[in-house]
Amino acid sequence: MIITVGGLAGSGTTTAAEVLSKKLNIPFISAGDIFRQMARESGMSVLEFSTFAEGNTDIDMEIDRRQEKIAKKSKEESKNLIIEGRLSAYFVEADIKIWMTAPLDVRTQRICNRESKSLDLAESEIKFREKSEAVRYLDIHNININNLDVYDLILNTHSFNPDSIAEIILTTLKVI
């Protein structure tokens, strides 16, 4: 089984994927980790790399290629996998595609706590990043990130902890 988990920054996609991975005892990969790794390799912050990526479609294409390649290999080997990333659902043939969201103030607080940033800085970075990504996704792939039609399950994570989110997903998996 291949599961994609996508969502807005701070909505809990990575945490939910990690918890789900442990509960199902299957691996997961993260597009965010790939992006951050590529930023480090380039000697840039995530925000700098995000701006750089706006003018360099090869960045997004490489992230997509890496995810797609890993997913295809897992499917060919009949291995289960969770793939976490904003656009994973568009490039990975998955059994279930999940989108996670939460209000901006909740996401800001989560990122503020996780990255030890001020609320103002975290919020401005979220807004900048989401605007930057929306431009790139539309330009490169003709994907409107706000169109959620590709997803099978959409979760507002505001009221749920990571274990509860994983349980919602596990319950959904039982009926598909």
Automatic annotation (TrEMBL):
Keywords: ATP-binding, Cytoplasm, Kinase, Nucleotide-binding, Transferase. One of its GO terms (molecular function) is ATP binding. NCBIfam families: cyt_kin_arch (TIGR02173). It comes from the Archaea. This is Cytidylate kinase. Its main location: cytoplasm. It comes from Methanobrevibacter filiformis. Its EC number is 2.7.4.25. The lineage of its organism: Archaea, Methanobacteriati, Methanobacteriota, Methanomada group, Methanobacteria.
